[in-house]
Design brief:
The complex is a heterodimer of chains A (362) and B (173). Chain A is mostly helical and 362 residues long. Chain A has 15 helices and no strands. In chain B, a hairpin with a 5-residue loop joins strand 3 (98-106) and strand 4 (112-122). Chain B is elongated, with a radius of gyration of 31 Å. The termini of chain B are far apart. The chains are: A mainly alpha (362), B alpha+beta (173). Chains A and B meet through helix 2 of A and helix 1 of B.
């Protein structure tokens, strides 16, 4: 078998066929699922560790500080040290808490994130499940994490936690609308909800260039609403430190807290990855029709690194927003959504539909 | 009967709020971009960090002039200070970390004069508010930039600020 880093389809097919050759199809599928699950979880942990470090460095540089710089060269092992510490921290049992829900909540948050990343194409041929309603599925799953947040707030038996969870609920209910409409705008342009087909359609120009002004507006709205959906600053009302100590995860300690913490960063990565796939061409390299020299140079970089690079670019944008803007008040938050983003979004959707009908989008 | 229909007041108001809506969007976007440009500049320009890597640069670290390290009493080369022993610093100190023990001396003209015997400063109780330095009528006190105060015995934190054998500077009443 010959494997290529540019097209991993043969690699995944080789695993599939060699598994099927040595055991019954049912076992092969089960083992494949386990392999994918373990691979995604490891990917998760690495991305989480890296993003926490990146966030601390980015925020430090934006505030004229240095950030972590003691553990390892440039402090790169700081988050590893933090993780080891969190693993050893005592899990404080909470009196009068709803034990089952309290312990269940962090897992629901993490499961929602894992389900979302399973449907994302990470590179050519590296795609756990290619649903024909991929965008729809992602929207549905990425908003499921809020159930975990609400459970955590309710089960903690703590006023701060409950207020934080309720705020998070109000936030998701409103901003989910904007995320959905922004993505629907791009679905109108693509004419499909299947993520692999969407990426293939962006071979000669990413949708943000193809879709002209409406695509750019949709991208901006998606970034704003997506940041709000991950409960990150400037929309981090659910865990506003100055008002609610730590919001919904006030009562959590040790590894359970680490799961919430990890989920925040993974959700940011997923929101950025969806933005990459839908607006910036996913793993598709940057091509210009007719410029064969440039296209060849761009094709030389493996698709996986294109995907990671674009996603981290969007993640950097979200960090930039977080560390520049002050937190919104709850009424300002709802005003922004219902009075500004939603009407603009609906008008933008109409504009995009018009563009596609007239045929100006190619 | 006028055939030309004039704009009513409500219409004008509506139009104004309509324009105001779009104006608020663009004003908002511009101010947000201004903020982003500030942090972006800090991020992409290396050398704007102000962090002092303290234990590493201990030798060349120089604190700025306004830094409140600890209260000192500057002495001249002739071992003279400016403290008249009036006790205003002791009265003003909110923590009672200054004790002025004064003595009475008869000077050459046969007049009685108050001098300080000991100006005791308890560094361990000081909050570095600076009221003593600010209110001293003869500017006898000052802040040093030294900030490494840790000692093994807390008695070492009780300091006598006037040096042994020092005198009041001439011309200070």
């Amino acid at each position: 078998m010959e494997f290529s880093i540019y097209d991993l389809t043969s690699f995944t097919q080789w695993i599939d066929s060699s598994l099927r050759a040595s055991m019954s199809p049912g076992w092969a599928v089960a083992i494949e699922m386990i392999i994918i699950g373990v691979a995604l979880l490891v990917f998760f942990a690495l991305i989480g560790l890296f993003l926490v470090y990146a966030e601390r460095k980015v925020c430090a540089l934006m505030q004229n500080r240095l950030g972590p710089n003691r553990v390892g060269p440039g402090g790169i092992f700081q988050t590893v040290a933090d993780l080891v510490k969190l693993l050893f921290v005592e899990l404080v049992p909470i009196k009068n808490a709803d034990k089952i829900l309290f312990n269940l909540a962090p897992f629901i948050v993490i499961i929602a994130s894992v389900m979302a990343i399973g449907a994302l194409p990470l590179a050519k041929g590296l795609h756990a499940i290619d649903l024909n309603i991929g965008v729809f599925y992602l929207m549905a799953v990425s908003s499921m994490g809020v159930i975990g947040v609400l459970l955590a707030g309710w089960a903690s038996n703590n006023k701060y936690s409950l207020i934080g969870a309720m705020r998070s609920g109000a936030q998701i209910v409103s901003y989910e609308l904007s995320v959905g409409l922004a993505l629907i705008t791009m679905v109108v342009l693509a004419g499909t909800m299947q993520l692999s087909e969407m990426i293939e359609a962006q071979r000669w120009g990413w949708f943000i260039f193809k879709g002209h002004v409406p695509a750019v507006i949709a991208f901006v709205i998606y970034i704003v609403a997506g940041t709000a959906e991950t409960n990150r600053g400037p929309f981090d009302l659910a865990e506003a430190e100055s008002e609610l100590t730590a919001g919904y995860h006030t009562e959590y300690s040790g590894i359970k807290f680490a799961l919430f913490f990890l989920a925040e960063y993974i959700n940011m990565f997923i929101i950025a990855a969806i933005a990459t796939t839908v607006f910036l061409g996913g793993w598709m390299p940057f091509h210009v029709y007719g410029w064969d020299g440039l296209n060849k140079v761009m094709d030389f970089i493996p698709p996986f690194f294109w995907f990671l690079g674009k996603t981290f670019g969007v993640v950097f944008l979200m960090m930039w927003l977080k560390w520049t803007f002050p937190r919104l008040r709850i009424d300002q938050l709802l005003t922004l959504e219902w009075k500004y983003l939603l009407p603009i979004n609906i008008f933008n959707l109409l504009l995009m539909a018009f563009l596609v009908l007239v045929g100006w989008h190619w | 009967m006028a055939l030309v229909r004039t704009e009513t007041n409500t219409e004008r108001k509506l139009m104004k709020s309509f324009i105001g809506y779009f104006k608020s969007i663009f004003d908002g976007l511009i101010t947000l971009l201004k903020g982003l440009s500030v942090t972006g500049k800090y991020f992409f320009k290396p050398g704007t960090t102000w962090t002092q890597q303290y234990p590493n640069n201990r030798k060349e670290l120089k604190m700025f002039d306004m830094f409140k390290g600890e209260v000192i009493m500057p002495h001249s080369d002739m071992n003279e200070h400016k403290c008249t022993g009036c006790g205003i610093c002791e009265i003003n100190c909110p923590n009672g970390s200054i004790e002025v023990i004064s003595a009475v001396l008869v000077n050459e003209e046969g007049k009685k004069q108050r001098i300080i015997d000991k100006h005791i400063y308890h560094l361990g109780m000081c909050t570095f508010c600076g009221l003593c330095v600010k209110t001293c009528p003869s500017q006898a006190l000052a802040f040093s930039q030294d900030f490494e105060h840790a000692v093994f015995d807390r008695k070492k934190l009780n300091k006598v600020l006037n040096r042994p054998g020092s005198k009041l500077m001439k011309g200070v009443a």
